[in-house]
Amino acid sequence: MAGTVSGATSRDLECPVCRQDLSQPKMLPCSHLACRGCVLSMLHAACGTEDPPSPLPACPTCKVPIVGGAGGGAGGGVVALAEEDLQALVDGLPTDLATMTLLDSHKVLSSQHVCKVCENSVAATSFCLHCHVKLCRTCAKGHAKLPALQHHLLEDLTHLTAQRLAASILSRCKTHDDRPAEVFCSAHSELICMLCATTNHRGCSEVKVIPDMAKEKRLALKQDVAALREREKVLSVQVKEVKDMFKVLRKRVKDTWDDLLQNVKRRRVELSGAIQAEEDCAMATVSQWEKTRAAIRTNASSLESLADTAPDVALLGMLSKLTSRLRELDQRSRTSEKAGPIVDVAFETQKLNHLKSVVSGLGVRAPCFNT
């Protein structure tokens, strides 16, 4: 893999499409990452004018559609879209700011260590986490002696990690790019400076310093992840119930049918076919549950990792779109739970109960039923 950060994160930092370091990494619906440009290229390739249209572009890693059917045409394909619409589809995906910051930090540490203060190419030995410059031994000593810079943290370049450097990167105020962002406004989802907090955002209901807001949102994110995991458990139980039910039905038909008279064999074929037809309907619903469960599992793991390791600034920058994704997954899981073990649209519970009753009476008399 090109330029990965060893031990920095459990997620792959290589784009599965171009096999290069991720650039503007976009988080796909399955939580895998791909370069923004690569996602756009896949959409361009799929949104041509050919007839029939190309199938929906999918994640190269797990084959889940990358835009969730947006712009879909007949037969599961995509129709031709304007360039601005394609751009909007890609930009609608969350940008993984944590990974992007980590990669930027890795590039800084992997570049030549040269002092940025000395005019000559003097080897740098330290890095200032406030100024974000490399310093030689002499300049580092002078840097530490200046009263205005005494609070700056100097790290030995031989021990400085990409994670440590990424966590020290300060965001700039959206309005005043010469000022560091110190607080976060929840009403506008913006990182702002103290001047903005006392002027433009004075009337906002919730404006807090970044560490406090990040701590609060990180805790809320973990709680949402825990709720998603509970939803996954509910779906797992429902899937098992349906699968076990059909296993029991199939075994009962087999064990009873062996003892019946020859004239019942025709009924056996009819009954097995009826059960198969109903099972096919139910399995379509189960397939959707399993997809929802898989989406919950992968997103929960990914978001839990972000909640544990993402720098404050990166976490807050992604917060709005990640929260929206959590609500969507929660709604999907709640819809599946309310549907019960069998979805009425795809499966007739009354018909299933009739079949179960017929199977139960097979050993008593030859069944007479219409399928």
Briefly, what is this?
This protein is elongated. 51% of the residues lie in helices and 6% in strands. It has a three-stranded antiparallel beta sheet with strand order 4-3-5.
What are the defining features of this structure?
371 residues, mainly alpha, three-stranded antiparallel beta sheet, 10 helices, elongated
Describe the structure.
With 371 residues, the protein is mainly α. 51% of the residues lie in helices and 6% in strands. It has ten helices and eight strands. The strands form three sheets. A three-stranded antiparallel beta sheet has the order 4-3-5. It has a three-stranded antiparallel beta sheet with strand order 7-6-8. It has a two-stranded antiparallel sheet with strand order 1-2. A hairpin with a 4-residue loop joins β6 (183-185) and β7. Residues 1-10, 69-77, 342-347 and 366-371 have low confidence and may be disordered.
Number of helices: 10
Low-pLDDT parts are 1-10, 69-77, 342-347, 366-371
Q: Biggest sheet: strands side by side, in what order? A: 4-3-5
Q: By helix and strand content, what is the structural category?
A: mainly alpha
- Report the radius of gyration as a whole number of Å: 29 Å
The proportion of residues forming helix, as a percent range, comes to 40-55%
Q: What is the succession of H and E elements?
A: EEHHHEEHEHEEHEHHHH
User: Averaged pLDDT, please?
Assistant: 77
The rough form would be described as elongated
Biggest sheet statistics: 3 strands, antiparallel
Distance between the termini: 58 Å
The count of DSSP E runs of length 2 or more, i.e. the number of strands, is 8
Strand content: 5-15%
